[in-house]
Amino acid sequence: MADISAQLVKQLREMTDAGMMDCKKALVETQGDINKAVEYLREKGLSKAAKKADRVASEGVVSVEVAGDYTKASIIEINSETDFVAKNDTFKELVSKTAKIVHEHSLSCTEKLHSMSVEGVKFEEYLQQNIAKIGENIVVRRIASIQADGKGIVNGYVHSNGRVGVLIAMKYGKDGSKNACVELAKGICMHAAAMKPQVLSPAELDSDFIQKEKVAIIAELTKENEELKRLGKMLHKIPQYISRSELTESVLAAQEQKLREDLKAQGKPEAIWDKILPGQMERFIADSTLLDQRMTLLGQFYVMDDKKTIAQVLESKSKELDDRIEIVQYVRFELGEGIEKKVEDFAAEVAAQMQ
């Protein structure tokens, strides 16, 4: 029989929250192999930490770390079952230590995180100890890190409630542009936190997806027009296009030609057409990129200058700095997005427990 120390039993108990005698028996049965003992307890249904892993964890916190020189940044989402636990000091310490490990090692994969060391044990074991201590399922759901290459910066923002975080990486050509990019990136991060763009650019939207969304958007606007007509208000224009990726050179050229013909029919002097056309083309593009405005960062109108899209803001800043400024990476985490929360029927739950 293997010599089972009290320290080993204590360690297993912290990892699983199982009873002391159950932990000792598990270690005896597995010849002191703690990993096998964890599995033994799980198989016997004695590991409370394992049982907690079945519960839906959709609360928690999003945390962002940015290097002082803006050369790298990281973001993590750690979930708990309740908002109450998310405010617990032990949970906050777990988040802090996890964020530090992810940032220091520029991790973007939870599997790699679980193999890292913290307080002398593997992170996976450290997490199990905290699950047992806190009494709720805790999940490191996702992590991401960005490192700036060459002439580039990374900045980030996390909303004060810890539910939304954003990272943005920018590239520039001149050393003197760095500080301006740091400031602009922070502002755009704040915009993205509020406006929820799903992707960076229209190029990331699949053509089949665009066509499906076009049907939905047209139906939505048509329905809204019924109410607007009843109220005697201006109706929405029903778009032929909804994304910049649909606006090919030939489409734009055909639209410009149509606008020229309209100006001619209106009797506008040809000498002023070139002053009128740019504004009309901008309006056409805005009316034809509704999907981009909803889903893409570059296609949205900037909250701090709502007459310009983020793409136009970057163009303006490039001209101001006599440089080429562009966003090269964008990451946004919103707490619990995509997690299906379990809706409990309290009466049914009580009845089930009384059976």
From TrEMBL:
Transmembrane segments: none annotated. InterPro entries: EF-Ts_dimer_sf, Transl_elong_EFTs/EF1B, Transl_elong_EFTs/EF1B_dimer, Transl_elong_Ts_CS, UBA-like_sf. Its main location: cytoplasm. It holds the Pfam family EF_TS. The keyword Acetylation does not apply. Residues 82-85 are annotated as: Involved in Mg(2+) ion dislocation from EF-Tu. Residues 73-228, 239-337 form the Translation elongation factor EFTs/EF1B dimerisation domain. It is found in: Cytoplasm. GO terms for molecular function: translation elongation factor activity. Belongs to the EF-Ts family. Associates with the EF-Tu.GDP complex and induces the exchange of GDP to GTP. It remains bound to the aminoacyl-tRNA.EF-Tu.GTP complex up to the GTP hydrolysis stage on the ribosome. This is Elongation factor Ts. It comes from Helicobacter marmotae.
